[in-house]
Amino acid sequence: MTNTLLVGIGRHDITPPLGAWLTGYAPARQAESVGDNLNLTAFAFGYNDLRSLLVTADVCLIKAPDGDRVRRAMSAASGIPFEHITLSTTHTHSGPATFRTGGGADMDMEYFDNIFIPAAEKAAAEAVAALRPAEVGVGEIHSDVGINRRQMLQNGTIILGQDPHGTYDPIMTVVSFREPDGKPIGNLIHYGAHNTGSGKNPEITRDWCGVAIDRLEAASGGITAFFNGCEGDCGPRLANGQTVGNYQLALELGGRAAIDAVNAWRSIKEWRSDCDMRVICRTVKLPYKIMPTKEALQAEIDAMGDPDKLIGLAVLQYESLIQRMEMICSGEPIDDNLCLELPVISVGPVAFFPIPFEIFSRITLRIREFSPYPYTLSLSNTNGAYQYFPSMDQICRGGYEVWVFTSLTAHPLADDSEQHLVDRAVEILKELKA
After folding, report:
1. CA proximity to 277, closest of 23, 20, 48, 71
2. Residue 307: helix, strand or coil by DSSP?
3. Could you say which of 39, 117, 203, 205 is the most buried, measured as most Cβ atoms within 10 Å of its Cβ?
Protein backbone atom coordinates (compact mmCIF):
# COMPACT_ATOMS: atom_id res chain seq x y z
CA MET A 1 0.00 0.00 0.00
CA THR A 2 1.68 3.23 -1.17
CA ASN A 3 1.44 6.76 0.22
CA THR A 4 -0.27 5.44 3.33
CA LEU A 5 1.08 5.81 6.86
CA LEU A 6 1.37 2.49 8.65
CA VAL A 7 1.59 2.15 12.44
CA GLY A 8 2.10 -0.90 14.65
CA ILE A 9 2.85 -1.24 18.37
CA GLY A 10 4.52 -3.99 20.38
CA ARG A 11 4.96 -4.05 24.14
CA HIS A 12 6.65 -6.45 26.55
CA ASP A 13 7.19 -6.61 30.29
CA ILE A 14 10.71 -5.77 31.51
CA THR A 15 10.08 -5.93 35.27
CA PRO A 16 13.13 -7.28 37.13
CA PRO A 17 12.78 -9.94 39.84
CA LEU A 18 12.51 -9.00 43.49
CA GLY A 19 15.92 -8.54 45.01
CA ALA A 20 17.23 -6.78 41.92
CA TRP A 21 19.32 -3.68 42.56
CA LEU A 22 17.44 -0.47 41.78
CA THR A 23 19.04 2.68 40.44
CA GLY A 24 18.26 6.27 41.35
CA TYR A 25 19.00 8.69 44.18
CA ALA A 26 19.70 5.74 46.50
CA PRO A 27 21.12 3.23 44.03
CA ALA A 28 22.33 0.68 46.58
CA ARG A 29 18.85 -0.62 47.41
CA GLN A 30 17.15 -3.83 46.43
CA ALA A 31 13.60 -4.24 45.14
CA GLU A 32 11.29 -5.49 47.87
CA SER A 33 7.99 -5.27 45.99
CA VAL A 34 6.42 -4.33 42.66
CA GLY A 35 4.33 -1.19 42.76
CA ASP A 36 3.61 -1.47 39.03
CA ASN A 37 5.23 -3.39 36.20
CA LEU A 38 7.80 -1.92 33.83
CA ASN A 39 7.38 -2.15 30.06
CA LEU A 40 9.26 -1.65 26.82
CA THR A 41 7.05 -0.30 24.05
CA ALA A 42 7.96 -0.12 20.36
CA PHE A 43 6.14 2.04 17.81
CA ALA A 44 6.80 0.90 14.24
CA PHE A 45 6.12 3.33 11.41
CA GLY A 46 5.95 2.61 7.70
CA TYR A 47 5.47 4.72 4.60
CA ASN A 48 6.01 3.22 1.15
CA ASP A 49 9.25 1.23 1.53
CA LEU A 50 10.49 3.23 4.54
CA ARG A 51 10.39 1.76 8.06
CA SER A 52 11.41 3.09 11.48
CA LEU A 53 11.10 2.24 15.16
CA LEU A 54 10.49 4.61 18.06
CA VAL A 55 11.03 2.75 21.34
CA THR A 56 10.67 3.70 25.01
CA ALA A 57 11.63 1.64 28.05
CA ASP A 58 10.69 2.08 31.71
CA VAL A 59 14.26 2.25 33.03
CA CYS A 60 16.44 5.14 34.19
CA LEU A 61 18.92 5.32 31.31
CA ILE A 62 21.08 3.19 29.02
CA LYS A 63 24.60 4.18 27.99
CA ALA A 64 25.36 4.41 24.27
CA PRO A 65 27.33 1.16 23.77
CA ASP A 66 24.68 -0.91 25.55
CA GLY A 67 21.89 0.92 23.74
CA ASP A 68 23.57 0.14 20.44
CA ARG A 69 23.49 -3.55 21.35
CA VAL A 70 19.75 -3.31 21.93
CA ARG A 71 19.16 -1.43 18.69
CA ARG A 72 21.13 -4.02 16.71
CA ALA A 73 19.08 -6.79 18.32
CA MET A 74 15.84 -4.98 17.45
CA SER A 75 17.09 -4.42 13.91
CA ALA A 76 17.83 -8.12 13.46
CA ALA A 77 14.44 -9.10 14.91
CA SER A 78 12.39 -6.58 12.92
CA GLY A 79 14.29 -6.01 9.68
CA ILE A 80 14.38 -2.27 10.30
CA PRO A 81 17.78 -0.64 9.70
CA PHE A 82 19.82 0.07 12.83
CA GLU A 83 20.10 3.76 11.94
CA HIS A 84 16.28 4.08 11.77
CA ILE A 85 15.77 3.00 15.39
CA THR A 86 15.57 5.26 18.43
CA LEU A 87 15.68 3.89 21.98
CA SER A 88 14.48 6.20 24.76
CA THR A 89 14.08 5.70 28.49
CA THR A 90 11.41 7.16 30.77
CA HIS A 91 14.05 7.86 33.45
CA THR A 92 12.32 6.17 36.35
CA HIS A 93 14.59 6.08 39.40
CA SER A 94 12.88 2.91 40.61
CA GLY A 95 13.93 0.50 37.90
CA PRO A 96 16.77 -2.01 37.44
CA ALA A 97 20.45 -1.10 37.27
CA THR A 98 20.95 -0.66 33.52
CA PHE A 99 24.18 1.31 34.06
CA ARG A 100 26.94 1.59 36.65
CA THR A 101 26.53 4.22 39.33
CA GLY A 102 29.14 5.53 41.75
CA GLY A 103 28.96 3.79 45.11
CA GLY A 104 25.93 1.79 44.06
CA ALA A 105 25.12 -1.29 42.07
CA ASP A 106 27.04 -2.29 38.99
CA MET A 107 25.09 -2.73 35.77
CA ASP A 108 22.89 -5.84 36.05
CA MET A 109 24.12 -7.71 32.98
CA GLU A 110 22.03 -10.80 33.76
CA TYR A 111 18.89 -8.68 33.68
CA PHE A 112 20.01 -6.79 30.60
CA ASP A 113 20.89 -9.89 28.58
CA ASN A 114 18.10 -12.21 29.71
CA ILE A 115 15.12 -9.91 30.23
CA PHE A 116 15.66 -6.52 28.60
CA ILE A 117 17.13 -7.45 25.22
CA PRO A 118 14.73 -10.39 24.56
CA ALA A 119 11.78 -8.13 25.40
CA ALA A 120 13.11 -5.47 23.01
CA GLU A 121 13.46 -8.04 20.23
CA LYS A 122 9.93 -9.32 20.73
CA ALA A 123 8.37 -5.86 20.95
CA ALA A 124 10.15 -4.71 17.78
CA ALA A 125 9.11 -7.78 15.79
CA GLU A 126 5.52 -7.57 17.00
CA ALA A 127 5.29 -3.86 16.21
CA VAL A 128 6.38 -4.47 12.62
CA ALA A 129 4.02 -7.44 12.28
CA ALA A 130 1.16 -5.22 13.50
CA LEU A 131 1.70 -2.43 10.93
CA ARG A 132 -1.59 -1.24 9.45
CA PRO A 133 -3.02 1.95 7.92
CA ALA A 134 -3.38 4.69 10.49
CA GLU A 135 -4.67 8.18 11.09
CA VAL A 136 -2.86 10.62 13.37
CA GLY A 137 -4.26 13.02 15.94
CA VAL A 138 -2.30 15.39 18.18
CA GLY A 139 -3.46 17.07 21.36
CA GLU A 140 -1.64 19.51 23.66
CA ILE A 141 -2.37 20.82 27.12
CA HIS A 142 -0.71 23.06 29.70
CA SER A 143 0.50 20.80 32.49
CA ASP A 144 2.11 21.66 35.80
CA VAL A 145 3.20 18.11 36.60
CA GLY A 146 6.80 19.30 36.29
CA ILE A 147 8.71 22.21 37.77
CA ASN A 148 12.26 23.51 37.52
CA ARG A 149 14.19 21.63 40.20
CA ARG A 150 17.27 23.89 40.48
CA GLN A 151 16.20 25.63 43.66
CA MET A 152 18.35 28.62 44.61
CA LEU A 153 19.03 29.37 48.27
CA GLN A 154 19.46 32.88 49.62
CA ASN A 155 23.24 32.62 49.29
CA GLY A 156 22.97 31.60 45.63
CA THR A 157 23.67 27.90 46.14
CA ILE A 158 21.76 25.60 43.80
CA ILE A 159 20.18 22.51 45.35
CA LEU A 160 17.81 19.84 44.05
CA GLY A 161 14.33 20.98 45.02
CA GLN A 162 11.65 23.10 43.38
CA ASP A 163 12.19 26.53 41.81
CA PRO A 164 8.86 28.23 40.98
CA HIS A 165 10.77 30.94 39.09
CA GLY A 166 12.82 28.59 36.91
CA THR A 167 12.36 27.54 33.30
CA TYR A 168 10.41 24.39 32.45
CA ASP A 169 8.31 23.18 29.54
CA PRO A 170 4.63 23.10 30.57
CA ILE A 171 3.35 21.51 27.36
CA MET A 172 2.17 17.90 27.53
CA THR A 173 1.62 16.39 24.09
CA VAL A 174 -0.36 13.29 23.20
CA VAL A 175 0.14 11.77 19.76
CA SER A 176 -2.63 9.28 19.03
CA PHE A 177 -3.03 6.69 16.28
CA ARG A 178 -6.18 4.95 15.09
CA GLU A 179 -7.29 2.88 12.14
CA PRO A 180 -9.33 4.59 9.37
CA ASP A 181 -12.54 3.14 10.83
CA GLY A 182 -11.78 4.73 14.21
CA LYS A 183 -10.46 1.63 15.98
CA PRO A 184 -7.70 2.71 18.40
CA ILE A 185 -4.11 1.66 17.85
CA GLY A 186 -2.25 3.55 20.55
CA ASN A 187 -0.87 6.76 21.99
CA LEU A 188 2.37 8.29 23.13
CA ILE A 189 2.57 10.88 25.91
CA HIS A 190 5.42 13.39 25.77
CA TYR A 191 6.41 15.57 28.71
CA GLY A 192 9.64 16.70 30.36
CA ALA A 193 10.17 15.90 34.05
CA HIS A 194 12.18 13.47 36.14
CA ASN A 195 10.33 10.32 37.18
CA THR A 196 11.74 10.60 40.69
CA GLY A 197 8.64 10.85 42.86
CA SER A 198 9.53 7.45 44.31
CA GLY A 199 13.27 7.72 43.79
CA LYS A 200 14.43 6.31 47.14
CA ASN A 201 11.83 3.65 47.88
CA PRO A 202 12.13 -0.15 47.55
CA GLU A 203 9.20 -0.56 45.14
CA ILE A 204 9.73 -1.22 41.45
CA THR A 205 7.64 1.40 39.65
CA ARG A 206 7.30 3.50 36.51
CA ASP A 207 6.72 6.40 38.93
CA TRP A 208 4.17 9.17 38.18
CA CYS A 209 4.12 8.60 34.43
CA GLY A 210 2.78 5.08 34.96
CA VAL A 211 -0.53 6.39 36.28
CA ALA A 212 -0.92 8.65 33.24
CA ILE A 213 -0.12 5.76 30.89
CA ASP A 214 -2.68 3.44 32.47
CA ARG A 215 -5.43 6.06 32.63
CA LEU A 216 -5.05 7.18 29.00
CA GLU A 217 -4.90 3.57 27.90
CA ALA A 218 -8.18 2.85 29.68
CA ALA A 219 -9.85 5.99 28.28
CA SER A 220 -8.69 5.54 24.68
CA GLY A 221 -8.53 1.77 24.32
CA GLY A 222 -5.07 1.98 22.71
CA ILE A 223 -1.64 0.86 23.94
CA THR A 224 0.02 3.88 25.55
CA ALA A 225 3.63 4.76 26.40
CA PHE A 226 5.58 7.70 27.81
CA PHE A 227 8.50 9.57 26.22
CA ASN A 228 10.48 11.97 28.42
CA GLY A 229 11.47 15.38 27.13
CA CYS A 230 13.55 18.10 28.83
CA GLU A 231 13.95 16.40 32.21
CA GLY A 232 17.50 17.62 32.83
CA ASP A 233 16.49 20.59 34.99
CA CYS A 234 12.86 19.60 35.57
CA GLY A 235 11.57 17.50 38.43
CA PRO A 236 8.13 16.32 39.51
CA ARG A 237 5.98 18.94 41.26
CA LEU A 238 5.56 16.85 44.40
CA ALA A 239 3.41 17.95 47.34
CA ASN A 240 6.43 17.81 49.69
CA GLY A 241 8.13 20.65 47.81
CA GLN A 242 11.08 18.46 46.87
CA THR A 243 12.15 16.58 43.75
CA VAL A 244 11.95 13.15 45.37
CA GLY A 245 9.44 11.61 47.75
CA ASN A 246 7.89 8.18 48.08
CA TYR A 247 5.60 5.85 46.18
CA GLN A 248 2.45 7.51 47.52
CA LEU A 249 3.60 10.96 46.40
CA ALA A 250 4.43 9.55 42.96
CA LEU A 251 0.92 8.13 42.64
CA GLU A 252 -0.62 11.44 43.75
CA LEU A 253 1.24 13.36 41.07
CA GLY A 254 0.45 10.59 38.60
CA GLY A 255 -3.25 11.30 39.09
CA ARG A 256 -2.65 14.90 38.07
CA ALA A 257 -0.65 13.75 35.04
CA ALA A 258 -3.40 11.29 34.13
CA ILE A 259 -6.04 14.04 34.04
CA ASP A 260 -3.81 16.16 31.81
CA ALA A 261 -3.01 13.28 29.45
CA VAL A 262 -6.65 12.28 29.03
CA ASN A 263 -7.72 15.88 28.50
CA ALA A 264 -4.97 16.39 25.91
CA TRP A 265 -6.23 13.29 24.08
CA ARG A 266 -9.84 14.46 24.28
CA SER A 267 -8.82 17.81 22.83
CA ILE A 268 -7.89 16.19 19.51
CA LYS A 269 -10.19 17.70 16.88
CA GLU A 270 -8.54 16.51 13.68
CA TRP A 271 -7.50 13.03 12.59
CA ARG A 272 -5.23 13.13 9.57
CA SER A 273 -5.02 10.30 7.06
CA ASP A 274 -2.64 12.15 4.70
CA CYS A 275 0.46 11.91 6.93
CA ASP A 276 3.77 10.61 5.69
CA MET A 277 6.75 9.31 7.66
CA ARG A 278 10.33 10.47 7.17
CA VAL A 279 13.62 9.50 8.78
CA ILE A 280 17.18 10.71 8.34
CA CYS A 281 20.35 10.01 10.26
CA ARG A 282 22.74 12.93 10.56
CA THR A 283 25.91 13.79 12.47
CA VAL A 284 25.84 16.34 15.27
CA LYS A 285 29.23 17.70 16.41
CA LEU A 286 29.56 19.16 19.88
CA PRO A 287 32.86 20.87 20.80
CA TYR A 288 35.01 19.66 23.67
CA LYS A 289 36.71 21.93 26.17
CA ILE A 290 40.42 22.54 25.79
CA MET A 291 42.31 20.05 27.95
CA PRO A 292 44.06 21.43 31.06
CA THR A 293 47.82 21.19 31.47
CA LYS A 294 49.21 18.00 32.96
CA GLU A 295 50.27 19.93 36.06
CA ALA A 296 46.83 21.46 36.64
CA LEU A 297 45.17 18.10 36.18
CA GLN A 298 47.56 16.37 38.58
CA ALA A 299 46.70 19.00 41.18
CA GLU A 300 43.01 18.13 40.79
CA ILE A 301 43.74 14.44 41.20
CA ASP A 302 45.89 15.04 44.29
CA ALA A 303 43.17 17.21 45.84
CA MET A 304 40.77 14.27 45.85
CA GLY A 305 42.92 12.40 48.36
CA ASP A 306 43.17 8.65 48.82
CA PRO A 307 41.14 7.03 46.01
CA ASP A 308 40.46 3.98 48.20
CA LYS A 309 38.51 6.19 50.61
CA LEU A 310 36.26 7.78 47.98
CA ILE A 311 32.56 6.94 47.93
CA GLY A 312 29.53 7.70 45.78
CA LEU A 313 29.94 9.95 42.77
CA ALA A 314 33.44 10.91 43.90
CA VAL A 315 34.54 7.49 42.65
CA LEU A 316 33.33 8.33 39.14
CA GLN A 317 34.86 11.81 39.34
CA TYR A 318 38.25 10.35 40.23
CA GLU A 319 38.01 7.82 37.40
CA SER A 320 37.18 10.62 34.96
CA LEU A 321 40.26 12.58 36.04
CA ILE A 322 42.47 9.53 35.61
CA GLN A 323 41.03 8.90 32.14
CA ARG A 324 41.67 12.55 31.29
CA MET A 325 45.29 12.23 32.41
CA GLU A 326 45.71 9.07 30.32
CA MET A 327 44.41 10.92 27.27
CA ILE A 328 46.91 13.74 27.79
CA CYS A 329 49.85 11.43 28.45
CA SER A 330 49.12 9.05 25.56
CA GLY A 331 50.52 11.42 22.97
CA GLU A 332 47.62 10.51 20.67
CA PRO A 333 45.62 13.29 18.97
CA ILE A 334 42.64 14.38 21.07
CA ASP A 335 39.36 14.89 19.23
CA ASP A 336 37.98 18.41 19.02
CA ASN A 337 34.34 17.29 18.93
CA LEU A 338 31.96 14.67 20.23
CA CYS A 339 30.30 13.25 17.10
CA LEU A 340 26.77 11.89 17.50
CA GLU A 341 24.85 9.98 14.84
CA LEU A 342 21.21 10.85 15.44
CA PRO A 343 18.21 9.35 13.62
CA VAL A 344 15.40 11.93 13.40
CA ILE A 345 11.88 10.73 12.64
CA SER A 346 8.80 12.69 11.59
CA VAL A 347 5.24 11.40 11.41
CA GLY A 348 3.04 13.94 9.69
CA PRO A 349 3.22 17.18 11.70
CA VAL A 350 5.26 15.63 14.52
CA ALA A 351 9.07 15.45 14.62
CA PHE A 352 10.97 13.37 17.17
CA PHE A 353 14.48 14.66 17.85
CA PRO A 354 16.69 12.28 19.88
CA ILE A 355 19.18 13.74 22.36
CA PRO A 356 21.55 11.39 24.26
CA PHE A 357 21.72 13.66 27.31
CA GLU A 358 19.57 14.83 30.19
CA ILE A 359 18.75 18.02 28.37
CA PHE A 360 17.78 21.33 30.00
CA SER A 361 14.40 22.83 29.15
CA ARG A 362 15.61 26.11 27.66
CA ILE A 363 17.46 24.18 24.96
CA THR A 364 14.47 22.11 23.84
CA LEU A 365 12.23 25.18 23.96
CA ARG A 366 14.63 26.92 21.56
CA ILE A 367 14.73 23.94 19.21
CA ARG A 368 10.93 23.84 19.16
CA GLU A 369 10.68 27.60 18.56
CA PHE A 370 12.78 27.47 15.40
CA SER A 371 11.70 24.06 14.09
CA PRO A 372 9.59 23.96 10.90
CA TYR A 373 7.35 21.28 12.46
CA PRO A 374 4.17 22.24 14.34
CA TYR A 375 5.07 19.69 17.00
CA THR A 376 8.76 19.09 17.76
CA LEU A 377 9.30 16.60 20.57
CA SER A 378 12.85 16.38 21.89
CA LEU A 379 13.61 13.04 23.57
CA SER A 380 16.09 12.94 26.46
CA ASN A 381 18.38 9.96 27.06
CA THR A 382 17.76 8.61 23.58
CA ASN A 383 20.29 6.39 21.77
CA GLY A 384 22.65 6.91 24.66
CA ALA A 385 22.93 8.86 27.90
CA TYR A 386 26.15 10.79 28.35
CA GLN A 387 25.44 13.24 31.17
CA TYR A 388 23.44 16.35 31.95
CA PHE A 389 23.41 18.98 29.22
CA PRO A 390 22.86 22.41 30.83
CA SER A 391 21.90 25.55 28.98
CA MET A 392 24.56 28.25 28.77
CA ASP A 393 22.77 30.55 31.21
CA GLN A 394 22.92 27.93 33.97
CA ILE A 395 26.57 26.90 33.80
CA CYS A 396 27.75 29.91 35.79
CA ARG A 397 25.32 29.01 38.59
CA GLY A 398 26.80 25.59 39.22
CA GLY A 399 24.81 22.97 41.07
CA TYR A 400 24.66 19.21 40.76
CA GLU A 401 23.82 18.98 37.06
CA VAL A 402 26.55 21.44 36.05
CA TRP A 403 29.06 19.59 38.24
CA VAL A 404 28.18 16.32 36.45
CA PHE A 405 28.52 18.08 33.07
CA THR A 406 32.03 19.27 33.89
CA SER A 407 33.34 16.50 36.18
CA LEU A 408 31.95 13.07 35.32
CA THR A 409 33.43 12.63 31.88
CA ALA A 410 36.97 12.21 30.62
CA HIS A 411 36.57 15.10 28.18
CA PRO A 412 33.92 17.69 29.12
CA LEU A 413 31.98 19.54 26.46
CA ALA A 414 32.50 23.27 25.87
CA ASP A 415 30.26 25.70 27.72
CA ASP A 416 28.69 26.90 24.44
CA SER A 417 27.67 23.40 23.30
CA GLU A 418 24.03 24.46 23.60
CA GLN A 419 24.31 26.80 20.63
CA HIS A 420 25.97 24.14 18.48
CA LEU A 421 23.19 21.67 19.30
CA VAL A 422 20.37 24.13 18.65
CA ASP A 423 21.82 25.29 15.33
CA ARG A 424 22.43 21.75 14.09
CA ALA A 425 19.08 20.45 15.34
CA VAL A 426 17.14 23.14 13.49
CA GLU A 427 19.26 22.55 10.38
CA ILE A 428 18.45 18.82 10.46
CA LEU A 429 14.75 19.42 11.07
CA LYS A 430 14.57 21.80 8.12
CA GLU A 431 16.29 19.21 5.93
CA LEU A 432 13.83 16.56 7.09
CA LYS A 433 10.87 18.82 6.36
CA ALA A 434 12.05 19.93 2.88
Report:
1. 48
2. helix
3. 205
Residue 415: how many CA atoms within 13 Å on its side-chain side?
A: 8
Q: What is the pTM (predicted TM-score) of this model?
A: 0.96
Q: Does residue 93 sit in helix, strand or coil?
A: coil
Per-residue pLDDT of the chain (434 residues; tens, 9 = 90+): 678 999 999 999 999 999 999 988 766 689 999 999 999 999 999 999 999 999 999 999 999 999 999 999 999 999 999 999 999 999 999 999 999 876 567 899 999 999 999 999 999 999 999 999 999 999 999 999 999 999 999 999 999 999 999 999 999 999 999 999 999 999 999 999 999 999 889 999 999 999 999 999 999 999 999 999 999 999 999 999 999 999 999 999 999 999 999 999 999 999 999 999 999 999 999 999 999 999 999 999 999 999 999 887 888 899 999 999 999 999 888 999 999 999 999 999 999 999 999 999 999 999 999 999 999 999 999 999 999 999 999 999 999 999 999 998 889 999 999 999 999 999 999 999 99
- Residues across the chain: 434
